[in-house]
Write a structure and sequence with these properties.
Blueprint: E1 5-9, E2 11-13, E3 22-24, H1 27-34, E4 39-43, E5 59-62, H2 88-104, E6 108-111, H3 113-121, E7 126-127, H4 130-133, E8 141-149, H5 151-158, E9 167-173, E10 177-178, E11 186-191, E12 196-200, E13 207-210, H6 222-241
Parallel strand pairs: 1-4, 1-5, 5-6, 6-13
Antiparallel strand pairs: 2-3, 7-10, 8-9, 8-11, 11-12, 12-13
């Protein structure tokens, strides 16, 4: 049958004097999925933005980014100024991939900013800047903290000997977070300060997102390996279901 083929959305750096614009992806994403046995294809948001071009993929990963989704995508004004805003074209492209995932049942895994994009795609909203707009809470940038797991993630954690109710340690590299949860999503991870950090759609073959970066956890971190394997298992099932 051959290796699974996973598509990962890319980040973007605009052009400047002496340097062309470029699409790019941190190597940790590639290593994480290749070490799980998958081949990786990078998905740039070049026009025309036709998600059907990527129907040969067995799964989709919506990656994180240093920039943020413009608030008009969740019908709010900018309150965090000046901000570092993502190109609308990237958001439109990722939303088109998510729509294709819903139409075709393609497994999709969102990481950090990708998790936030999935929430906004489903009609949710974001806290535009946690440090300045949320009076309570942890520091969520360049740190580690624990999350308490929901029922599906708990089932994964129990495979490595965690006991109910399990908590796992995750990394944290974000200044935004989920405010209003999107539709048809079950919460699967919550941080110590009550921030939603994981969700899934139980009616979709695999629609899962996490706020942290499992690909940047230690290579032998059990829960990160289980998250990857659950996604790749769903990709195998999807591939075998194709006509």
């Amino acid at each position: 049958m051959g290796s699974l083929i996973i598509g990962i959305t890319t980040d973007y750096s605009p052009g400047e004097p002496g340097r062309d614009p470029r699409f790019f992806l941190k190597t940790s994403y590639v290593h994480y999925f290749r070490e799980g046995g998958a081949r990786v294809v990078l998905l740039p948001f070049t026009p025309p933005l036709d998600a059907a071009e990527w129907d040969f993929l067995d799964g989709l990963v919506i990656s994180g980014s240093g920039s943020d989704i413009e608030p008009h995508f969740y019908k709010e004004a900018k309150t965090f100024i000046p901000g570092d805003w993502m190109p609308d074209e990237r958001v439109d492209f990722e939303f088109s991939l998510l729509a294709r995932s819903e139409e075709k049942g393609i497994p999709v895994f969102g990481i950090c900013g990708g998790f936030q994009a999935m929430n906004v795609f489903r009609g949710g909203s974001l806290v535009q800047d946690l440090p300045s707009m949320r009076n309570r809470g942890l520091g969520h940038q360049e740190t580690l903290h624990t999350v308490e797991l929901g029922s599906n993630f708990r089932d994964l954690a129990e495979k490595v000997g965690r006991h109910d109710p399990p908590k796992v340690t995750v990394n944290s590299f974000h200044h935004q977070g989920v405010n209003r949860l999107g539709s048809r999503l079950d919460i699967e991870a919550v941080s110590e300060d009550g921030l939603i950090e994981g969700f899934r759609d139980p009616a979709h073959p695999y629609f899962v997102g996490v706020q942290w970066h499992p690909e940047r956890m230690p290579e032998n971190d059990p829960f990160s390996l289980l998250l990857r394997e659950a996604f790749l298992d769903a990709c195998r099932t999807f591939r075998s279901s194709r006509p």
